[in-house]
Design a protein that fits this description.
heterodimer, A: alpha+beta, three-stranded antiparallel beta sheet, two-stranded antiparallel sheet, globular, B: alpha/beta, five-stranded mixed beta sheet, two-stranded parallel ribbon, 7 strands, elongated
Chain lengths: 125, 185
Amino acid sequence: MSEVPPRARGVIALHEDNCTSCMLCARECPDWCIYIDSHKVTQPPETPHGRPRVEAVLDRFAIDFSLCMYCGICIEVCPFDALFWSPEYEYAGPAPLSLLQERPELGSWMRSVPDPPERAGDDVR
Amino acid sequence: MTPDELAGQLRDLLGDEARPSTSYGLVTVDVPRTQWVAAVTTVRDALGLTFFDLLTAVDELEAGFDIVLRLWSPPERYGLLLRTRCPRDDAYVSSLAGVFAGAAWHERQVWEMFDIGFDGHPELRRLLLPDGFEGHPLRKEFVLASRVAKPWPGAKDPGESDRDLEQRPRRRVQPPGVPRPGTWP
């Protein structure tokens, strides 16, 4: 990849471990281009008299970059830091459907997401 | 120039019928439709707002259409919005093409997107839309095909998939900014 600034906004990366399937990004997306499927799993109580917990488990997370306008609202609204800007941009394909990226591809962009700044304002030049 | 100073100057220049207001440090002055061209000319000449930035419109439903113009002063580095309103069933204003030649293109676009007429425009024809296009896409009543043909991906709740939408029909969150089903023809 040729040199672009590390915080360039090339593609959206998914850090799956942080995603709670809360649907906020899919609901805020003005282009309707984020698709999420999940199912519920009941976790046994962690303490002797505790209650079982119901968790949503992610089945599908996809972003259609043929519709995305790169506004970054999904990244802004995610309360769990599961979405990030990556500076990579070379993912053109032969057909519009090849821009529909599923979990493995969205996850792979995490490799180029820069570390967060150590203090607020450190990355501002 | 502070927004308050600018609003005061606008009152002096444009008279009682002009209503300046300030929002987030940006001054907007509302003028009656009949004084649109005169007000723009006065502001351009008296305040040195010689840079025509943009002209557009806003569909305010029953209240009619707002026509919005942004002017800027390159040497003084400040600007303002001028706004006028026309009713829905009588949607036209006078053209600004004689005040700023560049306004002609913007008026062509507002005309094709909103069906707002511009009196005295030298050549009101389409700018961006293809020949044969039906409708005025920036009017609120214009049906967006992609919002009718495709289900909203946000209708699912956490822990649900497409299958649950079919198997568990119930009242669900509605997409923001889209009319209720059946509202559009």
